Fold:
Amino acid sequence: MGFSKFILKVLGWKTVGTVVQEPKCIILEAPHTSMWDFLIGYWYYRSVGGKLSIMIKKEFFFFPLGPLLKALGAFPIDRGNPTETLLEIIRELNEEDGKTFHMVMCPEGTRKAVHKWKTGYHTLARAAGMPVYISFVDWGHKRVGIDRKIELTDNARADTDRIQKIYEDLDLIPLHPEGYATK
Structure:
């Protein structure tokens, strides 16, 4: 916790919000235009006392990077088989009953500009009964944090469009603006 607070302070970042109180949740993070977004978000959540689980494509789990990623809370996913990945996460959640599981997901799904964000977070949240929170990394104002909890409906596309609008209204400035689209 102390190291993460120190790093954010040295880099000039202001934090907003605190650790999510529910034992299990999905935390959406946007904009996601650089790997630095992940690091700033990770340090933020550690600085407020939280621990994140992170999905990273399986190709990154080679030695020596794989053990480091696992130590940071990452687990490999097979992007070629998203259904099996989803089922694996739900199995893990059911086995981890009573433990904290705060998983960060980037609804954009890539560091390139995407106009229709992915809905996998919605499927997972509904299947596992987990709440969803909005978090952000704002390079223009050097702010990082949790904005709010989102209530989901049965309509994944409508909820995702609503979430994109919320991010648009937050007026965030990404590290690489050409890689971010909310509309």
Q: What stands out?
A: The chain has six helices and seven strands. Residues 2-179 form one domain. Residues 82-95 form the longest helix (14 residues). The radius of gyration is 16 Å.
